[in-house]
Design brief:
The protein is an alpha+beta fold. It is built from 4 helices and 5 strands; from the N terminus they run ααβαββββα. The chain has one domain (about 30-165): Roll (Thiol Ester Dehydrase, Chain A), CATH 3.10.129.
């Protein structure tokens, strides 16, 4: 594989882009690829007829983990804040099945910070697991709550996401 600056500076953060460019199949990532972890609880209704967590549930887990971090840091007020995040893109790759009542963890990092957007990269792990059972991303575009038009990232939000990059 050809080495690029992203590979030497942040090898795990650039892995998805490198895999895609090289036509390689996505693979699980280790815990060290993520900056922050959030514990998650599975529910009976998360399982599908095959006995594992249904694919659509992973997107809810992504959203829950990222928003929990932002709310806890005081960077997002979903009820009354003037700026809110709209999800404009999502993606997920699956590597190993998980199921209720298994406890999980979401590893979070930020792959890109734009003027009004953030790409959050999330790995879902069995609690204490060494590699992602699933990994993906979503992109939030931050908008003015009243006008629904993109706005610059508020200073505190930018500071919080920089710490995850």
């Amino acid at each position: 594989m050809k080495e690029c600056p992203a590979m030497t500076d942040r090898p795990q953060a650039a892995l998805a882009a490198i895999e895609a460019a090289a036509g390689q199949r996505p693979r699980p990532l280790p815990r060290s690829a993520y900056r922050r972890f959030v514990p998650l609880t599975t529910r009976w209704l998360d399982n599908d007829v095959y006995g594992h967590i249904n694919n659509v549930v992973y997107y809810a887990l992504f959203d829950t983990a990222v928003n929990a971090v932002l709310i806890e840091a005081g960077a997002l007020d979903v009820a009354a804040g003037p700026v809110i995040g709209y999800v404009v893109e999502t993606h997920c790759n699956y590597f190993a099945p998980l199921s209720f009542p298994q406890p999980l963890e979401a590893g979070i990092r930020v792959g890109r910070i734009g003027g009004s957007s953030v790409r959050y990269e999330i790995g879902i792990f069995a609690a204490g697991g060494a590699e992602t059972a699933a990994r993906g991303h979503f992109i939030h575009v931050y908008v003015d709550r009243a006008t629904e038009r993109p706005v610059a990232l508020p200073a505190h939000l930018r500071q919080v996401v920089k710490e995850l990059a």
